[in-house]
Amino acid sequence: DQQVKQNSPSLSVQEGRISILNCDYTNSMFDYFLWYKKYPAEGPTFLISISSIKDKNEDGRFTVFLNKSAKHLSLHIVPSQPGDSAVYFCAASGDYGGSQGNLIFGKGTKLSVKP
Amino acid sequence: EPEVTQTPSHQVTQMGQEVILRCVPISNHLYFYWYRQILGQKVEFLVSFYNNEISEKSEIFDDQFSVERPDGSNFTLKIRSTKLEDSAMYFCASSRTATVEDTQYFGPGTRLTVL
Q1: Mutate to test the interface with A, among B41, B43, B92, B111 (most CBs of A within 10 A)
Q2: How many A×B Cβ pairs under 8 Å?
Q3: Which of A58, A89, B34, B110 has CA 20 to 30 A from B43's CA?
Q4: Which chain A positions have a beta carbon within 8 Å of B98's beta carbon?
């Protein structure tokens, strides 16, 4: 039961170019979406989030876009840097019958930024 | 910067043995969570905890699992009789509130290996 799907297990990008990571969800009750970044041997680190009442949220080099009608969100990293190389998890939350705050994660996309 | 800590970083145990995984959440946080990630799989919610009670648990969190806040700082996950399929990374997380907008901060994880 994959309520949050990240269909690309890996992505390779050249330094300085744009990285676009995609995420799809199936549960229309989700109303808050997050991206976490994970380095090896570390826990997930919060990166950026977006509420379902918005379609875009920007924080420095990171922008998240939400298309509710398509149940799709994407994370754009511009420009990409080698230090961005990590696994990126999309996560969703909302009052979907569980309590708020419990995150439903995708399987992650491993981003490699080559110098 | 405050962070969630977890001990041990790696735990090896024999099938059928009890294990206790320990976490120290961020000091002013009130909500605590356990997640796990089986190798190659997504991060999965196990349980949330507030005010010395379980707020919510997933179907993974069966009678073999229990959580406790034995003192003012530690938050523990106990697995009574470990199975091979319990082998995973276990992440503790904490947040100030349970609202979706309040970031969950994750610890570095404990790798549990059941032989």
Answers
A1: B43
A2: 69
A3: A58
A4: 99-101
How many Å lie between the alpha carbon of B109 and the closest alpha carbon of chain A?
Answer: 6
Pair B23, B36: CB distance under 8 Å:
no
Condensed to tens digits (0 to 9), the pLDDT of residues B43-100 reads 999 999 998 999 989 999 999 999 999 887 899 999 999 999 999 999 999 999 877 7
B75 CB-near residues (< 8 Å, 6+ apart): B22, B23, B24, B25, B32, B49, B67, B68, B69, B92, B94
% of chain A beyond a pLDDT of 70? 93
A95 vs B114, which has greater pLDDT?
A: B114
Max Cα–Cα distance, chain B, nearest Å: 40
B21, with CB counted inside 10 A (0-12, 13-18, 19+), is buried
- Chain B residues in contact with A103 (beta carbon < 8 A): 35, 43, 45, 104
- Asked if A27 and A96 touch (Cβ cutoff 8 Å), the reply is yes
**Phi, psi (5° rounding) for residue A84?**
-80, -10
